[in-house]
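Tip: read the tokens left to right.
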């Protein structure tokens, strides 16, 4: 099989490509910097720098994971535009290519995030939930998903990954939390009641491959572990595996001062369940936050 992947040097992209590489799949990655990508990815991966030079007739699977990290910088007007356009523009280009192809890919997988739901406190959320809260993350993801769904035809199945907090010790949210927790000054944010819908990186990769191999899976799919946890539970599990105390509380107003509008994704949460994955008989390896933390961090 031939795969085209955007965002291949990101957290999920690297792990997915490493797994696909073991299965002898032909992988092409769209990247702006081939030299940097070659350092991060297996030497069998092919690289292209321009989508305009590619005909999607040659690919069985297209996976779109590209996008400016949403939580790396404060949300200035310029940064917000960068977050949006880095997702929307590449998705529009891929969809146009798929629509024009005489023999289009059998599946188009495109990224999204549980941020589409907006702040929801502890309300249970499956893929059928539609009472979104109107805020920036909702706007980003809703437009992104609407663009991606235009690729859907009788020939091309579309799957949209509403991804939660992906756990890895090298990159992402958990990696950023490690330094203060290792120093013993980590702890909950506010009262710690906000729900955190997480997924182990290994389960994320396995779920994507499961989606590719399961023709019944299409549309929006929640990519989270079976059970969300509160920020307090998450913090306690992290501190415990590091053998550190979990006594510090960071007040919400401090978070707002430090991160501005972006603080919303830390102060508010969503209680998301992966209903479609579970109904399709996908088996999570890491169902419990303590087991996931132990796997990633216990030495």
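Filled-in amino acids:
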């Amino acid at each position: 099989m031939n795969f085209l992947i955007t965002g291949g040097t990101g957290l999920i992209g690297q792990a997915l490509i490493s797994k696909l590489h073991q299965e002898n799949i032909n992988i092409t990655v769209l990247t702006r910097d081939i030299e940097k990508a070659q350092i991060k990815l297996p030497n069998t991966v092919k690289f292209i720098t321009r989508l305009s030079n590619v005909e999607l007739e040659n690919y069985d699977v297209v996976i779109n994971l590209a996008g400016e990290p949403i939580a790396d910088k404060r949300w200035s007007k310029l940064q917000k535009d960068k977050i949006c356009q880095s997702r929307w523009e590449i998705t529009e280009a891929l969809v146009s290519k798929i629509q024009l192809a005489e023999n289009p890919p059998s599946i188009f997988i495109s990224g999204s995030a549980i941020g589409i739901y907006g702040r929801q406190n502890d309300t249970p959320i499956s893929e059928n939930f539609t009472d979104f809260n109107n805020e920036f993350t909702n706007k980003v993801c809703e437009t992104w998903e609407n663009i991606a769904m235009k690729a859907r035809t009788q020939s091309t199945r579309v799957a949209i990954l509403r991804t939660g907090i992906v756990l890895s010790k090298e990159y992402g949210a958990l990696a950023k939390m490690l330094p203060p927790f290792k120093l013993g000054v980590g702890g909950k944010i506010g009262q710690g009641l906000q729900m955190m819908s997480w997924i182990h990186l290994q389960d994320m990769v396995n779920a994507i491959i499961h989606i590719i191999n399961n023709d019944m899976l299409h549309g929006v799919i929640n990519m989270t572990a079976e059970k969300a946890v509160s920020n307090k539970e998450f913090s306690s599990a992290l501190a415990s595996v590091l053998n550190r105390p979990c006594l510090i509380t960071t007040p919400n107003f401090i978070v707002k001062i430090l991160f501005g509008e972006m603080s919303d994704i830390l102060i508010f949460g969503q209680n998301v369940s992966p209903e479609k994955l579970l109904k399709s008989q996908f088996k999570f390896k890491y169902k419990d936050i303590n087991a996931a933390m132990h796997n990633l961090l216990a030495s």
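The two ends are 37 Å apart (CA to CA). Residues 2-168+197-226+271-285 form a domain with the Rossmann fold fold (CATH 3.40.50.720).
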